[in-house]
Amino acid sequence: MTALLTLDSVNAGYGSFAALFDISLDVEHGEAVGVVGPNGAGKTTLMRVISGLLPPQSGRILLEGESLAGAPAYRVVAAGIAHVPENRRLFPRLTVEENLRMGAYLPAARRAFGERVAWVYELFPRLKERRRQMAGTLSGGEQQMVAIGRALMSKPKLLLMDEPSAGLAPLVVEQVFELVKRIRAEGFTVLIVEQNVRQVLAVVDRAYLLETGRIKLAGSAAALQQNPVIQRSYLGL
Amino acid sequence: MSGARDLRLGLYLPLAAVVVAPFFLSDYFLHLAVQIAIWSLVYTAWALMGRFRLTSLGHGAFLGVGAYVPTLLWNNYGVTPWLGIPIAMALSVALALVVGYPSSRQKVVGHYFALITLALGQVVLLVIVAARDVTGGSLGMTPRTVGHSWYALQLPNKAEFYVVALAAWFVGLVAWRLVERGMIRLALEAVAEDEDAAEAAGVDVLREKLKITALSTGLTALGGALYAQYLMYLSPDAMSGVGISLEIVFAAIAGGMYNMLGPTVGAAFTILLTEGLRVLFGTHFVGAANTIYGALLIMFIIFMPRGIVGTAERLLTSPRRPPAAPQAAE
Amino acid sequence: MDIYLLEAIINGLLLGGVLALLSLGLNLIFGVIDVVWICYAEVVMAAMYAVFWLYTAWHWPLLLACVAAIAFATLLGLLVHVIVIEPILGSAPINQLLATGGLLFFLQSLATLLFGTDFRNLGIRLPVLELGGIFISFSRLIAFGVALIGAVGLYLFLARTYLGTAIRAIAQDREVMGLMGANERRIYILTSAIGGGLAGLAACLLVLQYDVHPFIGLTFGPITFMVCVLGGLGNMIGGFIAAFVISQIIAVGGYYFPIEAAEVLAFVFFIVMILIRPQGFLGK
Lengths: 237, 330, 284
Hints:
The complex is a heterotrimer.
Chain A: E1 5-14, E2 17-27, E3 32-36, H1 43-51, E4 58-63, E5 66-67, H2 73-79, E6 81-84, H3 96-103, H4 107-111, H5 113-123, H6 125-129, H7 140-152, E7 158-162, H8 170-185, E8 189-194, H9 197-203, E9 206-211, E10 214-220, H10 221-226, H11 228-233
Parallel strand pairs in A: 3-8, 3-9, 6-7, 7-8
Antiparallel strand pairs in A: 1-2, 1-4, 4-5, 9-10
Helix pairs in contact in A: 3-7, 7-8
Chain B: H1 2-20, H2 27-50, H3 60-77, H4 81-105, H5 110-130, H6 132-135, H7 158-181, H8 183-193, H9 195-200, H10 205-231, H11 236-239, H12 241-255, H13 262-281, H14 288-303, H15 307-316
Helix pairs in contact in B: 2-7, 2-10, 2-12, 2-13, 3-4, 3-5, 3-10, 4-10, 7-10, 8-10, 12-13, 12-15, 13-14
Chain C: H1 3-33, H2 40-57, H3 62-85, H4 93-115, E1 128-131, E2 134-137, H5 138-160, H6 162-172, H7 174-179, H8 184-209, H9 217-231, H10 236-256, H11 259-276
Antiparallel strand pairs in C: 1-2
């Protein structure tokens, strides 16, 4: 069975600045996969390459066997990948509900907006209270919920999450990862890049270590948790 | 860059020939040559700001001041243009600084800067029209004619005026050269790239911007004054306002605003093109010439933003680094 | 209060309506796509000629001619974006400004070529109303009313419809809109078409009151830019307010001074305001 997402020897960068070297990874249906690594490792670049915001310079990107490399973002979304960007990137002067509405831009999602938004409000009751509030005025944690909810509106085959814990207070971070577990329980396939190694390894099945643009380690979450390099450099043990 | 040097040598000799040629040709060619020389000064003056991303859409204002002030002084007080023109230049600079100083302090850049300059150009036009009792308004005015007189700078002999025009053109080139070779160029290029970083690096951004503004607007006024003296006729639409301001910008860009002779080439190109189209279409299709002109200008911006000279230079010299996307203001 | 002053104030108010409509169109395009159409007034001019031609040469009923002119302007707006703006969308902003400047020349000259430089009039004489000693031209009143309706319509479109919300969204974050599955190009084209349509509507209102000639854009174009910058470039509410401020300055100024002096006053006011507060009334 083909993996949901496959990256094969992908190279990417910005102009003459190369950021990703020979990246190969895959994500199976129903899995939660993490990509961890330090600042500047290329994690966000990886997300942008997958979601179509940045074209790869070489290599293949396959979604259920179909090539996505070089496709613009809107086509990648239509194919079934939703990207929760780093730092949320909500539309600040739209309300919560309008943000969710934008998440349902695709025709199929637009038609099913009513039921989808009801389902998202069920997942995130706090958002329902705040639906008419300007997104820019929400707290960090609430914004993260909106960002995730917005991505879920298109019922994606694959949910990309870029540093969901960034800039959030520790208590809120816990809540966010609880959310990830819930989303998984709903049946979504998730690919998360994170700096917070401890938290993310607790919620994913497998993970990759990305350092300076290259995959240095790969394995099950448990295996990585036991790995001495990870323990020393990232878990502070 | 030896390629660029060869280009320049190869250009100077025929250029000298072209410059001198009109003296031996008919009045018609002298007429064109005088215009090219004067407008070259104006376009070069504009490019002194334009090349540093200070894109003014209101240079018509200074053109207008330069044209009207000496004429008004001559007509009403008998003041010789030799005095009137420097006064006009000073007034232009003053006007530019009055608007430029707060603009720079407030870091007005980009679209806002362009639109403020546009407003300034309009103000001058409207003032000229409003003061119609003095300036003749939209109908225009003429300097009081005294026949041939160096004192009044009225030279019906086109060859003589051509000498004056050439001198002015030369002044423009010298100004360009001085800027090109001076510290001001490095300072302003740094400012154009990143104003805050330049400031942090110790550049007195305000002072440098004002210096180049003063130079640019003063020379523009000179060009306006000479053009009025040559034509012996002034009108607000030809000398100020949006239309002429845009023409200045286009000619400078078409020729290439990063090279010394770029604006001159732009002047030659636009004047000869307009003349050629006029000859071609005559009075039959009024507006056809400018329609083509307008379309060409759009295409220049899209396909040749570095202008004729800039693109030629790029093609003839080996690039030191990978060619960047051509951008008129980069 | 002097009755003539009151009349001037009211006329200024009415004039402000169309100016506000013009500023809405320009601000919409700038706010979403980040380009200033220097030739916006010339698009209006083109639509004015369209009304004139359809009404006087082909004898269409006026209302139909207006609707057709609005459709024409909508198409023109689309073409401006696709032909002139799109190729240089990534260039320095000044290039886009200058390219639309070239288009300004092109449209003016094309109009000269097709219609000559004569002033053209629809030949319609609408009545002048008298209310308590104040004379108000009916056409100006209609123009004000329709302009307001247009403004409200635009507001409702942007606030209540899906596409309108999408247009607002893309103005706030272009890149993320792609992540929503939106084809950014299509939204830009839609926005430009709407901007053109608004110009067309303004043209219908203007041609009722003024003669059209190829350079008429120069009479209200610079004022429109001034209004937009004064209100905060891209900010539609700011532009709306600024339109009425400026039109009042011109109208009341025109009561005390000759009209050109009043316009000078307005421009000087603008320059001073921008130097004090460069972002304009409501700019960021």
